[in-house]
Automatic annotation (TrEMBL):
<dbReference type="GO" id="GO:0043565">
    <property type="term" value="F:sequence-specific DNA binding"/>
</dbReference>
<dbReference type="Pfam" id="PF13518">
    <property type="entry name" value="HTH_28"/>
</dbReference>
<protein>
    <submittedName>
        <fullName>Transposase</fullName>
    </submittedName>
</protein>
<feature type="domain" description="Insertion element IS150 protein InsJ-like helix-turn-helix">
    <location>
        <begin position="9"/>
        <end position="60"/>
    </location>
</feature>
<dbReference type="InterPro" id="IPR009057">
    <property type="entry name" value="Homeodomain-like_sf"/>
</dbReference>
<feature type="coiled-coil region">
    <location>
        <begin position="122"/>
        <end position="156"/>
    </location>
</feature>
<comment type="similarity">
    <text>Belongs to the IS150/IS1296 orfA family.</text>
</comment>
<dbReference type="InterPro" id="IPR010921">
    <property type="entry name" value="Trp_repressor/repl_initiator"/>
</dbReference>
<dbReference type="InterPro" id="IPR055247">
    <property type="entry name" value="InsJ-like_HTH"/>
</dbReference>
<keyword id="KW-0175">Coiled coil</keyword>
<dbReference type="InterPro" id="IPR036388">
    <property type="entry name" value="WH-like_DNA-bd_sf"/>
</dbReference>
<dbReference type="InterPro" id="IPR052057">
    <property type="entry name" value="IS150/IS1296_orfA-like"/>
</dbReference>
<feature type="domain" description="Insertion element IS150 protein InsJ-like helix-turn-helix">
    <location>
        <begin position="65"/>
        <end position="117"/>
    </location>
</feature>
């Protein structure tokens, strides 16, 4: 949701048409920055009422488009606002982000896809041939035998400890 309604923006435009400056409109409508009003005026002049309506969907820009925008800005030595206006980008901060990414990571940084990575399908288990199947079966049997042996040794250890406790009890009760 936009911070300001379309009605507020249109009211600011009407006041501008009546001859008030952006600072006067700022005070009258209680808007913190006059540059916000200046931006509304520019958008209204170029796109009409449609330029004041906040777009709900996030537009995705290709890396090639980002590079073209940054090159144009550099060649013409223009501001972010003028560049955004020329290319129909509603938020000037987007261009500043692209500029920073380009400065830090080069051209490749402009082509990085944002958002969640795509889910990859799980790899299917390959079918085993007869020798691999027999080896797998042999290993499973060996594993089962080792598990049985471990359980047997645990029980034997428990019995030995129990007998040791019983002998100590008998000796202490005889004394």
């Amino acid at each position: 949701m936009s911070k300001y309604t379309v009605e507020t923006k249109l009211k600011a435009i009407e006041l501008y048409k009546k001859g008030l400056g952006s600072r006067q409109i700022q005070c009258k409508l209680n808007i913190p920055s006059h540059s916000t009003i200046d931006r509304w005026i520019i958008l209204f002049k170029k796109y009409g009422k449609a330029g004041l309506i906040t777009k709900r969907t996030r537009k995705k820009y290709s890396g090639q488009f980002k590079l073209e925008v940054l090159n144009w800005r550099k060649e013409h030595n223009e501001s972010y606002q003028a560049t955004a206006l020329k290319y129909g980008i509603s938020n000037t901060g987007i261009i500043a982000n692209w500029q920073r990414a380009y400065k830090e990571g080069g051209i490749d940084a402009l082509f990085i896809k944002q958002g969640r990575p795509t889910m990859h399908k799980k790899a299917k288990h390959k079918k085993l041939n007869k020798s691999e199947l027999s080896e797998l079966e042999r290993l499973r049997l060996e594993n089962r035998a080792l598990n049985v042996e471990v359980e047997y040794l645990k029980k034997l250890d428990a019995l030995v400890q129990r007998r040791g406790h019983l002998k100590k009890k008998d000796e202490s009760s005889q004394n």
